[in-house]
């Protein structure tokens, strides 16, 4: 039996992206905070966010109502207007907080020589309202927040730790969270964290798909843990796909910006012929979801691994000047985009649904919060508008912090928690099972539950995922945990939620497109799934 280790803290935050670190900094002057990071502190989706953060700074030409209207339009009739208005109203204040932390947003001078923030415009926005740090805003935000949390004496950072399961007490509808079991990857042991409050800031679940723009840590951990504990989830069928991700074994997760199509790049089949004119009058300049569906259709029809984005007909100096990063990246693996087309595939990019919360980030379980991409707040609806995702992280981190601080002094200490029991398990000698199931899951999710769906494909996927769940639960019950096992267990759970949500939506809307119901319904509601927590090995119920 390995040594049992228990941590005690006021607030445990699972995840170290923009949402988690913003919450930690907003709490740390008042209470003890522990931040759990599955990998290194800086690894996560925030780091790779190229776009900016939306907020109304130009009151002369823009307004909060305009930001609200644009978001509602992008959400295809499924946004919660109150949630959108709450987010847009609090946007500027939260951006000012980021500026106070030292995030270096780009500046410019107006006609009178006064310095101001440079505001850009992205898809779906009717005005310039995007604050950004060049084309790497996420990196600037993440780096700045990491510096601040590392300086704070009340924040304990635990890197290389996987969250396993929440520990709760009570019955369905009246549960309270007291902590969680965590896997210390460096020491190869399970530890216990006791806390007055738990916050999930684990990001999305795009790793469930074969092709994704997300880092490896995006395995839906928070969504799966909350579901097992008894929380409701909503709108899991809406997963945003970026149309053009580089298809190359040495450069996975590398996006090819849509600006390249804006500068004349053409999409071609493997035989060199164009196909976008067959799908939309706007050709390569059609909206993101239209282009992604067209690529998906051609790949499935031809049985092709990828299609090609070709800008080689443009002047070499023009290409290098406008796309220096892409040129250099591709050249590093032997692709000269000035002479040859770029192999591309669509890639899962953003999870629009998640754990249901109120405007304080509070879930169905007392003292359990979910913020950022892991959460469903009602902001995104059936499609996410550009630059609202980082905004959601900051706004709801501040809201959760305010709610926690109002309760922290009166919240009693949790009871003594049961130790992790691994007396009935052994070290695995069948790691190949995990590898095989991992590949099978991501492949059938891509083929059957991807950009274009049908009832037949979804039913086939559901049968596959139920078999995988049985295999993985048996494996989980007999062997000691590992990083890959925990991630696979969570991904399979999230896959089931995505499939069941997609089957429940008998229409096409936003990011959910099904061949059996190609039109949008006249009236629609969010897809909400609820469950009493099933039993698991950790049995995280007191």
Automatic annotation (TrEMBL):
Protein's cellular compartments: Cytoplasm
Source domain of life: Bacteria
Active site: 288 (proton acceptor)
Residue stretches making up the FAD-dependent oxidoreductase 2 FAD-binding domain: 10-390
Coiled coil: 451-478
SUPFAM superfamilies in the cross-refs: FAD/NAD(P)-binding domain, Succinate dehydrogenase/fumarate reductase flavoprotein C-terminal domain, Succinate dehydrogenase/fumarate reductase flavoprotein, catalytic domain
Record keywords: Coiled coil, Cytoplasm, FAD, Flavoprotein, Nucleotide-binding, Oxidoreductase, Pyridine nucleotide biosynthesis
Region annotation (Disordered) ranges: 522-542
Residue span(s) of domain Fumarate reductase/succinate dehydrogenase flavoprotein-like C-terminal: 439-519
Keyword Cell membrane: no
Catalytic activity: L-aspartate + O2 = iminosuccinate + H2O2
InterPro entries: FAD-dep_OxRdtase_2_FAD-bd, FAD/NAD-bd_sf, Fum_R/Succ_DH_flav-like_C_sf, Fum_Rdtase/Succ_DH_flav-like_C, NadB, Succ_DH/fumarate_Rdtase_cat_sf
GO terms assigned for molecular function: L-aspartate oxidase activity; nucleotide binding
Enzyme Commission code: 1.4.3.16
Pfam family, one: Succ_DH_flav_C
Family membership: Belongs to the FAD-dependent oxidoreductase 2 family. NadB subfamily.
Identification of the protein by name: L-aspartate oxidase
